[in-house]
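example protein:
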Amino acid sequence: MSLPVLSADAVVAAARACRFTMVGVAEAARLDPAPFLRWLAAGWGSGLSAMHRRVTKRLDPGAVVPGARTVIALGIPYGSGQGTAGQPEPPVIARYARGRDYHLAHRDRMRALRRRLLVLDPTVNTYACVDAGVAMEKAWAERAGLGWIGKHGVLVSRQHGSWFTLSVMVIDRSLDRYDQPHPRLCGDCDLCLHACPTSAFPLPGVLDARLCLSYQTVENHASIPVALRPALAGRAFGCDACQEVCPYNHDKLPPGDPRQAPRPLGLMSATEIATLGHDEFAGLAAGTPMARAGYHGLRRNAALALASDASPGAHAALAQLSRDASPLVSEAAQWALGHRP
């Protein structure tokens, strides 16, 4: 028995009704395995143990959803700032992490989208995920025309720059049309490669996660390598350096989703973060990406970020942290005290 073909316009309309700003659809053909396998073999993702698991499912939607026919690529812009032109931004927290956890935002909207798809076809089978799942969301977003993967490995859109987060939904139904893959428009520009404070790009479009400050400040729960610590000046969670220099992020961009607006912890200075109490951190970090670093991890980051701060307040915060009960925090603070200007 042949399965019904769904209307692409109806699927896109359903996604937009669920508050996805960016929507594209691609045929669920297997991805080229060569780039991902080369990246794994080179050890550039060695700290990201999850990337080494379920490789077949990462590359083939049919291994996740039997009879997969379509991948729906979805995006939610979070904006380039707080919404006021020329307003200075606190640099210590990466933009994507200042507000509500994007995993939660995508999860809620994908659940709503699944319900709408079941109205279109009550027997449709779906699989949805953000970056914590097995789908290669950037590759699928490029195939579905949302943008192109830049030389910094981040998806770039003409309309939204690169200030957005992605998710995908795989379904076992064909659509009556598909979007075209987006051409890559970086041209000769390589500003992002030179902007990286740790030279984490061995090749254009290829990231060595071990050198990336986003990996080190978020995923690494041990001590941050000493050689990378000076690059953490003014950074306590994530890093936007490669995105900040992208020409597509310099034009006037539409505002981000107001539901992703910064929360108090996302606007704090490194000194304020360094001196947070445990209960205060738990209350402020709940529902934000910063909870992933944990109390000790975020204060470790803040201590290293303060190594470049010559203010008396920074010195007092580091002196306090140098006696912290957490060896992870106290060691970072002691190192920072010995490397202050």
